[in-house]
Write a structure and sequence with these properties.
With 129 residues, this protein is of the alpha+beta class. The protein has 3 helices and 7 strands; from the N terminus they run βαββαββββα. It has helices spanning 13-20, 43-50, 117-123, and strands at residues 2-8, 30-33, 36-39, 61-69, 78-84, 90-97, 112-116. The strands form 2 sheets. It has a 5-stranded antiparallel sheet with strand order 1-4-5-6-7. It has a two-stranded antiparallel sheet with strand order 2-3. α1 (13-20) packs across α2.
């Protein structure tokens, strides 16, 4: 379960991409957003910069939620991408490994794609063509 502290627009994406550039990787990893310290260095943001759309169902992410796990209390905030499905229900977007790690896939940008949580769960560790 996640604790949500706010919602922000996708306008922050260029700034997130800048902090995920390998040249800047040692730079600032957290940013104050709405008075909260939020982690802004994550490979997910580079994936979302490439595409905000689920490669399978084509739903599109439309905003970031500032969230952290309910436990432990000292957990840092991060940004999760969300959108609405055709029924108007909120859906979480994830970074999916095209070639699953369990099948030798690497943690590199060219092996990532954007998927909604439901499609990613259904895909599991299958290789889809």
């Amino acid at each position: 379960m996640l604790q949500r502290a706010g919602i922000i627009s996708l306008d922050i994406l260029p700034e997130l991409e800048d902090h995920n550039n390998p040249k800047n990787r040692k730079s600032i990893k957290y940013k104050e957003i709405d008075g909260l310290l939020v982690k802004i260095s994550s490979q997910r943001y580079a994936v979302f910069q490439k595409s905000l759309r689920c490669v399978k169902c084509h739903c599109e992410g439309s905003y970031f939620a500032i969230e952290r796990p309910n436990q432990p209390e000292n957990a840092k905030y991060h940004l999760n991408l969300y959108g609405l499905n055709k029924d108007g229900k909120e859906i979480l977007f994830t970074k999916d490994h095209i070639l699953p790690k369990s099948k030798g896939g690497q943690n590199i940008l060219s092996n990532y794609q954007t998927m909604c949580e439901k499609c990613n769960y259904e895909k599991g560790n299958k290789i889809e063509v």
